[in-house]
Amino acid sequence: MGQLDVTGWGFVAVLAAVTGLLWWRAAQPRRAGGIRGGHRRLNLLAAAMLTVLLAADGVNSYFSYLPRVADVASVVTGTDSWTALQRQDLRPVDYAEVLHEAPHGGVLRLAVPDRGSGFGRSSALAYLPRQYFTEPLRRFPVVYLLHGSPGMPADWLRAGGAEQTGAHLAATGHPTLIVMPAMSHHWLDDSECVDSLRLKAETHLLRDVLPTVDATLRTLPAPAGRVAAGMSAGGYCALNLGLRHLDLFGAIVDLSGLDRPTHSGGAAALFGKGPAALAAAAANSPGQYAARLPAGLAVRIWLDSGRSDTDVLAALRHIHGVLAAKGIPVRLAVRPGAHTYRVWRPALRQGLDWVLGTQVDAGNGQPTMKAKLPRPPKQARSLTSAQREETSTAGLRGHRRAADTDRDEGG
Question: What's the CA gap between 393 and 399, in Å, rounded?
Fold first, then answer.
């Protein structure tokens, strides 16, 4: 029951049919004796409640925010809809019981202390693959998966399929830790992951989160062992922080994130006013500073957008062109959809599949760069027929068109 998809149009259609039937029954004339009147009031109440539920599920179906019954129950009851691990599960005694309860890995909640950022104490959710327990001497790369705004870390587990993506990576030979930190203080708090006047979110990630993860888990603490990834505002965060800190991150996955901060109050709400504020905004706008990046950087960058997400798509096409011209390994995928998790779920899996083409020698903990640059014909076949990818890697000239490109795209 918990795995029932409540966002499929079949479910919505059945719910609409039941709601319509109840309204029809409530509209029937009362029968003599008043028996029908009591039933009619019950039908009216049930129909009204289902109408509200139908409207809510219609919105939920569009954004695919809570796709399963278990995810809805998780929000209502405050329980976890994912495979939860406990801190004691990390003790290297006997992992058999852990694997029995979490055969495909699970999610651990990490306490993140304030190490001087001023952000305050927080927590992060961390997916650990099965191999974390079957290979107790092995170290693993880490994907830092940043949430959007409004948003919270759990969104990636309820709506984004992060646990399923982690299990997929483990099953295909790329076991990876996926860490989902809190980059704001509450669901509506928009930090843009920058050091603003109000909140030092960038410093929080670099000074609080990364050291805590490296100290607690068996990670590969090197750029080749870290990926910055995110969706929407979190996609901008990944792009900006990844490019600003190439000494820490070796790959970037930007899913529908713009190339500039987009706080509802404008840049002034983040950085204030005056020349220093303008300089800070420019320093956090990849669309402006990307042209000044050195050519031939080894960082691998996956950009992804829904075709209907026109403003985001225009921004990503622009920065894709800038980065490609510098010989930086970058890929742009355009898929059917808008600014929703229906785009971000498959995009996360495909983007991580691509950027994790870098091989890491986990035996001695030393990352080695064996660049498996994509061969466009093979990669194109992995896309749906409705999808278009623009590919540029170091050594390739221009953009090679995938087999199923949209005709309105330039080569």
Answer: 9
Measure the CA–CA gap between 88 and 243, rounded to whole angstroms.
Answer: 36
What is the C-alpha separation between 226 and 243, in angstroms, rounded?
13
Q: How far is CA 406 from CA 256, 258, 323, in A?
A: 19, 22, 22
For 203-212, the pLDDT digits (tens) are: 999 999 999 9
Helix (H) or strand (E) holding 99: helix 96-101
Distance CA 303, CA 91 (A): 38
- Give the Cα separation of 235 and 257 in Å (integer): 4
| DSSP one-letter code for 274 | S
Has residue 77 got a pLDDT over 70?
yes
Query: Would you say 193 and 242 are in contact if contact means Cβ atoms under 8 Å apart?
Result: no
DSSP-based three-state secondary structure for 309: coil
Q: What is the pTM of this model?
A: 0.78
Q: Is the pLDDT of residue 247 over 70?
A: yes
